[in-house]
Amino acid sequence: MKPIFDTSVARAMLGAALVYTPLAYGSLGQAVSSVANDEVSMHAVSHVSVGQPAYSIHTITLPSGTVVREYVASSGLVFGVAWDGPTLPDLKATLGAAFNRYAAANATRNGNPLAVSADDLVVYSGGHLRAFAGHAYLPAALPAGVDAGVIQ
Fold first, then answer.
1. 38: how many CB neighbours lie within 10 A of its CB?
2. Of 51, 62, 118, which is closest to residue 94 (Cα–Cα)?
3. 50 Cβ contact partners less than 8 Å away, ≥ 6 residues apart
């Protein structure tokens, strides 16, 4: 009697599952491995991480064409995020716990670009229809020797 489930089919399914398993991305200030997957929640496509000595950059592209870059220290902590494109990303997921401060500042910006500059959080967000850009970072979480200017 022929087996019901061919092992070559099982191997192909396992291989496909491994290839299509999304990479983990994180919210600002959280460990990259401890948070929900932004790629899945944003229905995005991931790109290869770019490695630097003290950090790596994880890049995802949303279906709209917006690009989100997440800066992850070698410790695994997301210390910065940046975005640009025709739509805003899900900033609640991207900014994590910092989102409430962003939302409060956004409520009072009167059409000007949003800028928050505090000891523990820096956020800039601006743009207009089909052209949005911004970045956010945690100054205290910047890896040693890394300038905040790399978050773009």
1. 26
2. 62
3. 56, 57, 59
CA distance 53 to 30: 20
Domain ranges of the chain: 7-141
Task: Give the pair of three-digit tokens for residue 2.
Answer: 């022929």
Separation CA 105–CA 117 (nearest Å) = 11
Residue 70 or 2, more confident: 70
Q: Could you say which DSSP state residue 87 is in?
A: S
Give residue 49's pLDDT. 79
φ, ψ dihedrals at 35, nearest 5°:
-120, 165
Both tokens of 9, joined, read: 């089919």
CA–CA gap between residue 62 and residue 131 (Å, rounded) = 14
Return the DSSP state at 9: H
And the tokens for 86? 């025709």
**Top-confidence residue, 59 or 142:** 142
